[in-house]
Amino acid sequence: MKREDKWYLGYLLLYFAANLAFLCDFPFVHSDEAWLSGLTRNMMERGSLGVTEAFFDLKPRYPHAIKSLFHLLQMVFLKLFGYSVFSFRLLSLLGGVACLWLFYRLTLRLTGNRVLSGLCGVLLSLDIQFLYASHFARQEILILLCMLGVYGLLLSGGKRRCLWAALLTGLSVGLHPNSFLVATLGGGVLCARWWQEKKLRWREFGVYTGVTGTLALGFVLLSLRFDPDFFTHYAAYGSEFSVDSSLTSKVLETGPYFQRLFYQVSGTYYTPDIRFQLMLFLAVLLISLVVVMASRGRTPLLYPLAACGGIWTGMMLVGRYNQPYVVFLFPFGYLGVVWLLNNLKGKLTALGMAALIAVVACSTGWQLYPILTQQRGRYDRYLEEIARVVPPDAKTVGNLNSEYYFENGALLDYRNLAYLKDAGMTLEEYLEKNDVKYLIISDELHYLYSMRPVWNGIYGNLSYLKELDKVLTRCQLLHEFTDNLYGVRVVRFQNGGRDFVVRIYRYRPAEETS
Questions:
Q1: Could you tell me which residues come within 8 angstroms of residue 451 by beta carbon, excluding any fewer than 6 positions away?
Q2: Burial track 443-475 (b if 16+ CB lie within 10 A, e otherwise)
Q3: Is residue 78 within 8 Å of 37, Cβ to Cβ?
Q4: I need a surface site. Which of 265, 325, 337, 345 has the fewest CB within 10 A?
Q5: What is the full DSSP assignment across 113-163?
Q6: What Å distances lie between residue 66 and 86, 124, 186, 207, 325, CA to CA?
Q7: Is the separation of the CB atoms in 219 and 173 below 8 Å?
Q8: Collapsed DSSP state (helix, strand, coil) of residue 502
Q9: Which value, in Å, is the radius of gyration of the alpha carbons in the chain?
Q10: Residues 6+ apart with CB under 8 A from 157
Q11: pLDDT tens digit string along 237-286?
Q12: Average pLDDT, integer, range 288-316
């Protein structure tokens, strides 16, 4: 191993250790994390992958195998470190460190310069969007790891490496439906190679599509075993996110998607300031297109460009433009940056890389400082407030973001209440049927209801609030506290000018108060 490799590995160890210090503080704990890990816990306790979330009983949920590999990975960390935010974010952090090592190897292949490649790895590691993905207990960072692995394998060529790339792509289906983007990235890289070699390698194409398709079919068949109506139910779920809209509307959504990212417009996800990166990558894209056309594709720059094109094509075909997904483009954008810098040679290359690291590091530090000074320990304090009066095994209706406090099956999420009418139940009947003892109610419900239907996508239709208010009049108020971070899920209202009070009630059935 070269000295520069050892230096970079040492940096990754320090990077890992440093991130452990604020792993649970940045970003704020999102209910998606509790959703995923809560399902993992229920799978473990029920001894089956074919179960749904314990905190949803009225909200329609159907088992499938598309995320089963991810849940199996989470089970390992749950078993080792217990049920906590730290356990599941640790999986993401390890995935992020693995991404940085693969990225270093890919950059080295592109430039042949170990020092420059190591510095580019440092640049990516300090990027706020990459840092966010490495701390978030969702699948994005693991999907990115698969993307980098598939990119490197297909870049090398050969049937054996193509087979490994196909296996990696197929297995990624078990992480998330976004594995489709891994496949479209692979298709883009294969097309770029064939263009440069002026030869279509049908055997490689057959191996890649055949093995990937076979593994994907395996996950589908397992899903059908869990749920015979898998296709119907999964299509219905996808329609909630407009994946069934026309191809034209999906293509036209690209502009507004990047516009939202540029102006940090978000619903419930933390959206960092990445304006510098977006402008940098746009400039690199335009220069890359000129270089590729001038060289008629005979440039290494074609491959990161093809990777980005493959990812964008996948996002366009699926029609899902989620804020965290933009991280998929970042490593390949930085590959384009480092190739251009490497061609400047000498001091200009060093100065350019130093300037980029300085700007990105300052941007990240500027954004992290207020978060870490204001949010450190906030989630623990939020759960401590609940723990003052609610036992962890008590049946409770509340926000899913408190799931890490409760035992499996104890918490029932707000979202269920939007389906009371469909189930032919009153709120009173629902609470008594589930033997609910406590209700944790935040001001945010009435606040979002006052702006209906703008925020109906968060908790569903909140028309049950009048009935809830009536029920609460006879409940005993046990505790209340103000939390302007975890008391409201919409990012634009967090830590703003309005206080959000969370109230905890002991439920009293009607017959007990009559």
A1: none
A2: bbbebbbeeeeebeebbbebebbeebeebbeeb
A3: yes
A4: 345
A5: -HHHHHHHHHHHHH-HHHHHHHHSSSSHHHHHHHHHHHHHHHHH-SHHHHH
A6: 24, 29, 19, 22, 18
A7: yes
A8: strand
A9: 24
A10: 193, 204
A11: 765 655 666 778 788 888 899 999 999 988 899 999 999 999 999 999 99
A12: 90
Q: Measured at the alpha carbon of residue 337, what is the angle toward residues 334 and 339, in degrees to the nearest 5? A: 110
Question: What's the CA gap between 275 and 112, in Å, rounded?
Answer: 30
Exposure of 369 in the CB half-sphere (CA atoms within 13 A)? 6
Please name the helix (run of DSSP H) or strand (run of DSSP E) that holds residue 205, with its range, or none.
helix 202-226
**Per-residue pLDDT at 250:** 80
Tens-digit pLDDT profile for residues 311-340:
999 998 887 788 899 999 999 999 999 999
Q: Is 209 helix (H, G, I), strand (E, B) or coil?
A: helix
Give yes or no for a cis peptide into 304 (omega within 30° of 0): no
CA-based nearest residue to 139, from 202, 207, 198, 66? 66
Q: What does the alpha-carbon distance between residue 134 and residue 459 come to, in Å, rounded to a whole number?
A: 27
Q: Name the pLDDT band for 168 (thresholds 50, 70, 90).
A: very high
Q: For residue 58, report the phi and psi dihedrals to the nearest 5 degrees.
A: -95, -35
CA distance 505 to 439: 5
Instruction: List Cβ<8 Å contacts ≥24 apart for 109-115.
Output: 109/152, 109/155, 110/300, 110/304, 110/335, 110/338, 110/339, 110/342, 111/338, 111/339, 111/342, 113/342, 114/2, 114/4, 114/5, 115/4
Tokens of 116: 């420059």
